[in-house]
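User: Hi! Is it possible to get a structure for several chains at once, not just one? Here's what I have:
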Amino acid sequence: MHEKTKEFAKAPDAGLASEIDLIVAELGALRVSSLDARNRLDNPPRLPSRKALVGILDGLCAVLFPNRLGLALSEFTDGGIDYFVGHTLDITLRKLFEQVRLELGMVAGDDGKDTDLVQAKAVTRQFASRLPTVRKLLDSDIEAAYEGDPAARSIDEVLVCYPGITAITYHRLAHELDRLGAHLIARMISELAHASTGIDIHPSAQVGGSFFIDHGTGVVIGETAIIGQRVRLYQAVTLGAKRFPVDENGNLIKGNARHPIVEDDVVIYAGATILGRITIGAGSTIGGNVWLTRSVPPGSTITQAQAHAQTFLDGAGI
Amino acid sequence: MHEKTKEFAKAPDAGLASEIDLIVAELGALRVSSLDARNRLDNPPRLPSRKALVGILDGLCAVLFPNRLGLALSEFTDGGIDYFVGHTLDITLRKLFEQVRLELGMVAGDDGKDTDLVQAKAVTRQFASRLPTVRKLLDSDIEAAYEGDPAARSIDEVLVCYPGITAITYHRLAHELDRLGAHLIARMISELAHASTGIDIHPSAQVGGSFFIDHGTGVVIGETAIIGQRVRLYQAVTLGAKRFPVDENGNLIKGNARHPIVEDDVVIYAGATILGRITIGAGSTIGGNVWLTRSVPPGSTITQAQAHAQTFLDGAGI
Amino acid sequence: MHEKTKEFAKAPDAGLASEIDLIVAELGALRVSSLDARNRLDNPPRLPSRKALVGILDGLCAVLFPNRLGLALSEFTDGGIDYFVGHTLDITLRKLFEQVRLELGMVAGDDGKDTDLVQAKAVTRQFASRLPTVRKLLDSDIEAAYEGDPAARSIDEVLVCYPGITAITYHRLAHELDRLGAHLIARMISELAHASTGIDIHPSAQVGGSFFIDHGTGVVIGETAIIGQRVRLYQAVTLGAKRFPVDENGNLIKGNARHPIVEDDVVIYAGATILGRITIGAGSTIGGNVWLTRSVPPGSTITQAQAHAQTFLDGAGI
Amino acid sequence: MHEKTKEFAKAPDAGLASEIDLIVAELGALRVSSLDARNRLDNPPRLPSRKALVGILDGLCAVLFPNRLGLALSEFTDGGIDYFVGHTLDITLRKLFEQVRLELGMVAGDDGKDTDLVQAKAVTRQFASRLPTVRKLLDSDIEAAYEGDPAARSIDEVLVCYPGITAITYHRLAHELDRLGAHLIARMISELAHASTGIDIHPSAQVGGSFFIDHGTGVVIGETAIIGQRVRLYQAVTLGAKRFPVDENGNLIKGNARHPIVEDDVVIYAGATILGRITIGAGSTIGGNVWLTRSVPPGSTITQAQAHAQTFLDGAGI
Amino acid sequence: MHEKTKEFAKAPDAGLASEIDLIVAELGALRVSSLDARNRLDNPPRLPSRKALVGILDGLCAVLFPNRLGLALSEFTDGGIDYFVGHTLDITLRKLFEQVRLELGMVAGDDGKDTDLVQAKAVTRQFASRLPTVRKLLDSDIEAAYEGDPAARSIDEVLVCYPGITAITYHRLAHELDRLGAHLIARMISELAHASTGIDIHPSAQVGGSFFIDHGTGVVIGETAIIGQRVRLYQAVTLGAKRFPVDENGNLIKGNARHPIVEDDVVIYAGATILGRITIGAGSTIGGNVWLTRSVPPGSTITQAQAHAQTFLDGAGI
Amino acid sequence: MHEKTKEFAKAPDAGLASEIDLIVAELGALRVSSLDARNRLDNPPRLPSRKALVGILDGLCAVLFPNRLGLALSEFTDGGIDYFVGHTLDITLRKLFEQVRLELGMVAGDDGKDTDLVQAKAVTRQFASRLPTVRKLLDSDIEAAYEGDPAARSIDEVLVCYPGITAITYHRLAHELDRLGAHLIARMISELAHASTGIDIHPSAQVGGSFFIDHGTGVVIGETAIIGQRVRLYQAVTLGAKRFPVDENGNLIKGNARHPIVEDDVVIYAGATILGRITIGAGSTIGGNVWLTRSVPPGSTITQAQAHAQTFLDGAGI
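Assistant: Yes, the chains can be modeled jointly so their relative placement is included. Here is the combined structure:
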């Protein structure tokens, strides 16, 4: 080994120290100017923690399905299960309370701290009281998945394996939080589902019972979508917005109704793209890869051929 | 701070206790009625554990590729590698045996417990004896990926980086278990691959050697699909079912052959959708976004234009 | 329990030992022949570790956004933040240096060991010096996401929730490493982003500031793609290659320019497929599901209808 | 670097592999001959696990003192505490059951497996039913420590800080298990206390309420010792055996009464050594460093001077 | 397996559930009556956490000796060390602040909450400002150990190996906290040292520089002991109280000066017991196993023979 | 809450930042001057890691007693045990090699780096080759413990429970390393045993087979002690040095023979103190609390009375 390289081997970081000082200073300046731009210099808010939410969701799933999703499920049977559910619920709600408090504090700024506590507590309690309802809806979803997939061998397989079940479970929990005003936490939960399933459901979307998504990768369901009972979707279905209207200053108008309404008993096959505040009538079937930007009456069957014909007439596709 | 809010700060859970009692009771009642509906009240089965399977797959990958995927690979060289492989295989098989036993017990109910042990042992052993064959197949897959992707710089890059390799590795392991009757575990392994790669291959699908999926997100390969040697797929390709036939009572008929047969040396470009028990003849090329529901002879080249023309004639797309 | 099954219960692994010996031997032989085929028998290289890279990326994200992505962000405020950033940067760079050294050593073989150290050090330092620039670009991306999505309620929500932000953050870091010659590490980072977001950006792709991908699942951006300023993409957009030219021996030609150039201020809607070394002129809008293999001039608006018409004329789609 | 040393640097384990083979073989042979010597070759028993017992003791302490020793005590208040206690008790008893089963199986050999289950279950249940009694005794011990130590500022300090409290807590739990026949587990628990406090109480020793050991390092209390109510010991006190009688074959006679009886309200100061089946009468005070091998009547005060005088007469000290 | 035992095997916890309910209820009643007895029913205080203190001590030791005791010391050199020290100090002080707040809140009851924050902050700051002084004292202790032990080969060995150094490090930190009013935390730290070294130094004891304890097991140094410069102790030395005076009600008088004063340059050999508020004059040597209850002038050499003679005259030993 | 305290609650660390800067600077200056004093400023050495040694000892114990001390012992039986032993030995030796290299490098300074590698490798290999011998000695120790303690119920209990077995196991391993020149690591291992058992054996002490220490707390065995076959000790026995001779400069002479020689078949009861380079003749019995500074012939029985008489004549005890 040559003298010079030997030295590097011994101290591969010689000189690195002062460089680090420089980078730390540059990054610090960027941070300050970024906070300054948003008038946040005095109090950069603490945000809810993705990692904490992962733990909270594990807890909630264990509470909802202790026999099947509880981490330590082999360790007890009948007798201890209520202790397990009660204890897990207890500590999970306290953790959720902390996260809700962070979000409310972030939104309100520090002055609202006392009010935040009261409100965070109310949100947590009301959320907790909705859990049995969520369980009932999820039972209907699991049943729908079992009945709708010829490859499903058992209810248990559905619960343990299907990404569509994970996505709807997270969505139903996120939706309750979104309704109660914890929008950021709700969105973070949606994205946890998105990351592990490829299914992207905005927490504000309204989804009826007995809902089933098969395969699921690439599904996108937008903020103002409304989905009825017993609806079935396949992978890569989009329920999206057609246009993003802007106000007089050219800024996006946020929150207006811009996604489809899907009525009861609709089936939408893989790759279909449905855009805008249109209505898919009850009992309709939308074929694979269909591109649809107009409402269809109840009982419709839409194929690519029909859709394309329409598309050509419209010059649509944006 | 006002008196009242101060109190909340001190005891953010006052009153929460009795509410928890209520929720625990409601959830318990739902659990009972759900088990009751499936005649499972007496013995809610213990299911195989997703978390345990993650550990088992890490072990199997380390056994198959100890130099490259073994977690602690830097800690030894030639001498110790067989001890590492043998020890890892030993404990991994024992863990797998436990999971297989759980699945068999769940399927059989408790009465079959003794038989389960014998059968679980047989499944585990036969699975183990297939590992060298699986390794050989995976070597052919890695080679195919290296040769098929202009962006691949080395065999090592392919093994370490490519999601398609992860997906086919998991699939080949899951497929062996599926063949041996551990259907649920096999499916859970498929979904682990699906979650981390966006590639969804049903464990029953039959896949020949030198198989390569590039990018991969959104690929779906159905339960009864049969894929030959040297087939190459790109992202968002679906090998799906066209229809789900029902029996005289309106229930789905499960398990019948309903997915495509893809013969040797076929290439299917991104977004192509191939549905039904059709055959793609050897050496064919299916273009991107093609929608195909009819068999094509060997050596075919199918483009969107051709496919669409056909689609219009058929009124297909469901 | 019958005698025989009882025995299995007691020793579920009787006989397993010698079977393991066999499997270990078979796998060992396969390993040797695989290394032999690549002239690697003498020195199977140690590869960079995916697990180590996960830790390095956590460290880099904490350094770039300590208030929002630092793991322990609640534990300090202004005073300690520079210590946190400096310390995290220090240990993260040392870990990165180790990984770079592994990659360089793998590429060079052992003879280059001393040179590797010098070069690995240079790569690490130059990478570090680029971090402030990366932060500035990411600030522009976050701003673009906030302005481009009507569902985004705050800058914080964008940073914490949006998979598109994760993907571009990882890409910008990977791209710097790729430029400096750490191609494998760069690719591994890309695949970490791909696995958690479904967005697949090759680290060599060049991406301008204020870049935004919404939803993102299924997006693929190829190795030689060039993207300008203020470009916006939606889910399932492909910027791919149209053909893979081979040399006179039938081997793929690697590395040539084969992916699109997307100029400033272009918007590409969901599912659009853009293939080949074509140019999308500045300010153009490409509609959803469009299939495009020809350049379009600045300011174009391309819909499915137009694209299909063209496709039919071309017989394209491969 | 010289060629030769460079080689070592590259492969510091060359040749190590075959050496390991040799050592593994030698150790294997020693193992076999050691098992053979004890007729254990066919079934080397699985022993209870020290690590598992550490977890069980944490659980039991949390159940006994949930407010003060529960690991996560900050996470709940009144409402959830019974869920916490019930859940912790439930899983802790199941873990204990496993360990008891291992011990009983080890003692009985494999043939007794079925009986072991029944007996292990009975032991666990009876142990559980003793927990409230143990708590009452420990409350008296804590009170005694607070009253007996001028340095103790609060009951809480005593519970959280005093090694004597740890030792007696572990002893009282171990003693119950010892009484029920789980001798090995009991002994392992004693040694856990010994390791962390330096206080060595044999689990068979009988200890009355309101017992206090101050400082404690070096205290040894033998197997057949009997200690009354309100006894106080200081560091390095030994309640030991004077002689170890052997049978006609020269083997130690095991289990006979050979340690002191200490009646109610006795105080024994640091370093005192009390040997043999003698009785220290109620209310006596034994001075520091006293060496005592004869019974003393109630109300005695024994100093070194008196003890030494006696010792010289006896020529004792063995 | 017989029917009956088989059932146990299947459900080893049948009936356990209702038993658990009973035990939980009994333990709950005991808890309430215990809190009631101490008027703590309304607000059982949260105590400082032993586990948190372990982490805090690791942090403080890393700050004091980053080169030698920092957990990750191999990961940086000169450049990063101040970032490491600063960051570790920052988060360690915040954790300490939390523990101090808990102790102050426990002592004060809830009404003092606001004051607690202010005071806890002051305690933490003043403690931090003492760290350089503590480091200087510890340097003198390490030097003394190296010079005083013929078996010590290097300063490094002393720092890394000697339990006496661990004990004095913990003591000097605990002593600062004790002086500032965090008595319980200080005591908990003492007991952490006691548990790992067998050396029991009350945090209120005053210990001068260049202090060395060799071997150490069984050393006890009482609350009001005062130790000068350059004192050396061996294992099992006690600096204790001779009597525990009681007040007119028979209760112990707490806190009065009752332990020895050991002047500069004294050596006390193994097993010596020194009791009461006596003074060991500067430069004295106390022999092994000596029992001493009277002051000795500077420069004394006390042997067992002399001490025993005195003891016989006094009839001491209590 | 008052304005002022509220502020503290919000920012309990205001002002702390600059204080931390100060403390970091002061500690840094102390570090530099301390290194400077020892001419270590240029290269503060990296020391072996206590934490790493804990892992290495776990590994070695698992290798020596895989059935009984292997962490995962329940996971395999006959077949896999050699893989387990070989794999554990392999990775444990590599970790040990790293630690030895650190110690040798620390002793030699950086110039010796290449030589260190060669020597560290030699030390590790020679150590490994001694493991079967160590196992044989430990088998004799365990047998001795079982035969020597009337409370021991089984060989297994002895291995799993007895602190004396832990101490001698660690000692025998440390002694081999000490003999091979890894003095610091050896000492660190001794102190690990000391911390968990209260038994302090210097790694250089020579200990024959069938050695048993009962209870053990407070036992000290010095650097140059020599112990024969079948020796038995009880708690608080000291085999120490009588005097520490200094050279002409007043510095301690290090390393000379200054501790007792204990011949075969000696029993030494609790609390006995044996000092200086004296010889306890074979087959002797030393009574409890005896203070002995003169050699005794084989077959002696020494009681306190005899010893004291001698002590008075000598005026010994220092």
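The two ends of chain C are 63 Å apart (CA to CA). Chain C has two domains: 44-198, 205-307.

User: Great, thank you!
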